[in-house]
Fold each of these.
Amino acid sequence: MTFIASRKIIVGFAVVILVVTAITAIYGRLFCGFFCPLGSVIDFIDSYIFKNARNAQRRPPLYLQKLKYTLLFTVTLVAVTGTVFPLFLDPISIITRIATVFVYPLPAIGDNLVRPLLGSLGAGNRLPIPYFYGTVGIGLLFLVILFGSYWDRRFWCQYVCPSGAFFGLLSRFAVFRRNISTASCGSCKACVKICPTRAISEKNFKATSTAECIMCGKCIGIKQGCSTFVFNALPGHEAITVAPDMGRRQIIAGVAAGTLLLPVLEANALTKRDNTGRLIRPPGAVPEALFSARCLACGQCIKVCPTNALQPCALDDGFSRLSTPKLAPRIGGCEEKCHACGNVCPTNAIRKLPYDEKRFAKMGTAVIDKPRCLAWEQNKECLVCDEVCPYHAIDPRFLQTSRGMFKVPVVDADLCMGCGMCEQKCPIFDTAAIVVYKFGENRRATGPYMSDAQKQMVTEKRKRADKIKADTGGEGAGQSEPGLTTGIPDARTGSQATQPENIPSSGFAF
């Protein structure tokens, strides 16, 4: 789907796909039975939790197994238009997202709950708890997937999983198949009852559906020599198989569903939130159209972020962006020397940037909200944003007011990379007085983010700002700006003070 949507073959993925495709063409749905992590979790739930709760009368009709083919063609059509949308359906993406957003915080939460009860451990050195948007939602999705076992074993794999449908279609050509020994078979139909995916027909128990069989081997374990798996091409062996139960109706239904889904993805009114400029992608993220075609919302970048700054998008960011990563500066800023997200991204939706390139990858620009800023509005000695900025993008300036000279922060847009450290550390409650917006972002699929001349200019400005800060003991430039005032009437003259240069009258300062 990623190849189709991005119109590009990712070499690393291509090798894996060729290997898995070759294995499936020979052995059938071996991946589903032996390698799928979500299938392993479902098997555990089937065997130990819902084993005695299932009832044969609650089993869904057999024809509902065709639903997964409809979903396969739906997500394929969406991929053709340039959007990867199996993020709710792909088992690998789902299980990694569940592990990150739902499971990953549990040890830290447990440690913080248990530690106060055990006085010997003390109150210090607690594990930091990672917080994520959508934890409740992904937890409910996980429970829904697992609760399908109440109705049938491997419910997800039988009726929903498009990956299973794809492997089922490939398994049509598999040569390693189940074979029945007529001499050993007693027609007890125990194999029919034990098969977790209903691959063995009740009417003809000697026939096996290649599209549903996951090669689990449970049928050959109940009676020695009755059922065996053999290469169908070998002399003396002939396995009775049933082709995938997919017809024109599933193809038509899938295309129709994809056609109806496209307007929802493209014209969703919730994507208007993007106009606020707060949808900030990770450093190294490719342009948005290509990002939507590559990102699987697997959550691996979110997990490795050391500051917990990367968060999954919610519904108010747009339905098509749900669970894809974004920077939430109020929770955490992007560390200057960290680019772990690019190193773990499996589809190159986030580029692998070296440090020398990452420090020039602009994600956005910080904006100061003067009415909320302690320095601008209340003449308080607060320059926290300047202290934590790793790029020296905050330029402290003297401000002349009726109460004397005060320092205020001003953002140098050329130096600001939008890392969000300033927003995270801002002492103002709720919404920070300095907020990062995505305007000015520089996202490229390939190549450097700045020319050599631009890099040299930015580097020199950073060095100059660093030197000034070192010479003044961390106080910054501290240059007086004669026309730089707060807009508060002067107590001595009664006149209205002027707006500072390059500061919009709306109350925001760059």
Note: The first strand starts at residue 176 and ends at 180.
Amino acid sequence: MEKIIKTQQEIETSPSRLLSQSSTVIFDMDGTIYELDGDNNGFKNSSLHKAVKNNTVDFISKNEGVSKPSAEVILDELSEKNIYPSIYASEKYDITRKEFFDVVWNIDPSSIVKNYQEAVQVISEISKRNINLILLTQAPKVWQSNVFVFLNIQDLFSEIYTGEDYIHKNEVFPKIAQSRQPHSILAIGDQIETDINPAKDQGFSTFHVNSPRDLLQLINE
């Protein structure tokens, strides 16, 4: 009897059951829809990280009129002070964060993102079920747009929030909750602190994934 009860409980909380009870699904992007070739398949030390850093050094070098090694020193100092380069650039050069991102993050994802096939399959399937899809990513709009075009999912999300819209993700979850019933929202992500806990605080259902392949649990009974 104990084994039967346990199985029933597992069914009740399975990702596919959570999806069936949801009218809105929030997806994280990096680490959830695709992986990178950095530490733990993430951004740090990935090809994307290196490309963004190189572009940032070039941007600072050009705008400061200094050599690239000098620009690297400036970037290192910003990192030590926990100052976002986008905020530094917007204040120093009188530009918007978007203008900075559009230069530094305008990168071709085709040789950078990996292990995305299952995620594309799942997102395409969910989009056919009359479920609203929301993307909530820390990445800038230009990178998000490039990725979605590459994955051919650019028309499947009803709302998209990128790093240009906020500083911290936990600013966005309450905004999403205001226009919907929290119990009808499912949040999916690979980071507990930024994707899962803020969603739980709003009363959303959550699905923590370790890789994009885990998303198949949403559509497989």
Note: Confidence is low (pLDDT under 50) at residues 1-11.
